Amino acid sequence: MALKTAMALAAGMLLAGCAARYTPTPIPANFAATKQAKLQAAQHWGVIADNIEKQLAAELRKSPPRPVYLNEPKDPNPFQRALAAQLTTSLVNDGYVVSRSPAGSLRVELDVQTLTFAADRPQYRYYGEKTALAGGVLALSVIDAGVAFNAATGVGAVDAHQWLNSQFAPGETPKTEIIVTVSVSDQYRYLARATSAYYVADTDRVLYGIVDPKPEEPKITRTFQVRGDI
Q1: H helices within 22-114, ranges in order?
Q2: Sorted alphabetically, which keywords does the UniProt record give (predicted)?
């Protein structure tokens, strides 16, 4: 009897651990681990401008050369203004003729979409931190984008741990992100297009045109309801 009960319990536990074959809605699942750069300095804006220019240039070389005209956004925020200037510099330095008027030129257009997600989103940077082994040796075990990296040395393990952490931006996952799209087109078609996404430090939101509402000030007066004759 006891054996049958144990077998029944084991079978129940096994069935409970199996995923259902049919569900009313898809089961939420995480994407495979990736990295997304966090913009924290004006120099970073220059880096992404150079990267965008290289992507556009690779496509523009497939067509006959023509001057390009950068159509800057109206009332640009500091990021848009800097990105337009740095993209112009990258194009000129790469040998492109950047026209000051749109006539007869390909049009380069910038689009920056700002997004605000929920705060305190979790992040799982790697599976393991540094671990003390016998004899004071430290082991560092990390899995990054499917590649296993193991280091087991004395002082070197601490250096490896610090180096590995330096690739990650400090702090929590920002709630602010931007999507930058740059397109090159004529009046009929798109000739080149590049889109990329970046984190933005939440304390720098105003540089990207995001103006948060001011918090309500506490009321300094109170209203009392009085009943009866005075």
Answers
A1: 42-60, 78-93
A2: Signal
Burial 205-230 (b: 16+ CB within 10 A, else e): bebbbbeeeeeeeeeeeeeeeeeeee
pLDDT digits (tens, 9 = 90+) for 181-204: 999 999 999 999 999 999 999 999
Listed by start position, the domains of the chain span: 31-120+174-208, 126-167
Rounded distance between C-alpha atoms, residue 93 and residue 97, angstroms: 10
DSSP-derived pairing of the beta strands 98-99 and 130-132: unpaired
pTM of the model: 0.69
Alpha carbons 80 and 180: distance in angstroms, whole number: 10
The C-alpha atoms of residue 47 and residue 82 are separated, in whole angstroms, by: 12
